[in-house]
Design goal:
The protein is an alpha+beta fold. It is 16% helix and 34% strand. The chain has a 5-stranded mixed sheet, with helices on one face. A two-stranded antiparallel sheet has the order 3-6.
Length: 73
């Protein structure tokens, strides 16, 4: 299963594989940075928001359930 995300200006969602029932916000951010090939530039932070509930994930230890649709800024 996976978690789907898109950047605010993107049209389509992209999947991030999720091994278990959840993925941490920290692991999700790392996966997005690797997928988008941002390199070693780390002077920014990604804001992850649930597209359906509009919940903003502020804590990197927070868990996101599989099959969740997210918007990233």
């Amino acid at each position: 299963m996976s978690v789907r995300f898109k950047f605010k200006n993107d049209l389509d969602y992209q999947p991030i594989p999720c091994d278990g029932f959840h993925i941490s916000v920290r692991d999700l951010k790392r996966s997005i940075i690797r997928l988008k090939k941002f390199g070693k530039v780390t002077d920014f932070d990604l804001v992850v928001t649930n597209s359906q509930t509009l919940h903003v994930y502020l804590d990197d230890e927070e868990l996101i359930s599989k099959n969740t649709t997210l918007t990233v800024q």
